[in-house]
Write a structure and sequence with these properties.
This protein is mostly helical. The chain has one domain (2-69). The chain is built from 2 helices and no strands. It has helices at residues 2-12, 18-69. α1 (2-12) runs antiparallel to α2 (18-69). The longest helix has 52 residues, at 18-69. The protein starts with a helix and ends with a helix.
Length: 71
């Protein structure tokens, strides 16, 4: 993020030439994709954790329902 912010600062400045601008934008694109990948990975991990926490509750709820059905 710090590098992206630095690139943004340089791009917003009036002192950068067109060749440098192109390189900065290429680097920013690579960094943004890296950030997106990390976010997707974190989302997947969080989803898996939440599902694993919910599964024992469902199993306990299912066994409780089964015992009431047998009454």
């Amino acid at each position: 993020m710090e590098e992206l912010e630095a690139i943004l600062g340089r791009v917003e400045g009036d002192e950068i030439d067109i060749d440098e601008l192109a390189e900065e934008l290429k680097q920013a694109t690579k960094l943004l994709e890296l950030c997106r990948q990390k976010i997707r990975k974190a989302e997947l991990e969080v989803t898996q954790i939440v599902q694993s926490l919910e599964e024992p509750e469902k199993a306990a709820g299912d066994s409780g329902e089964d015992s009431s059905d047998s009454d």
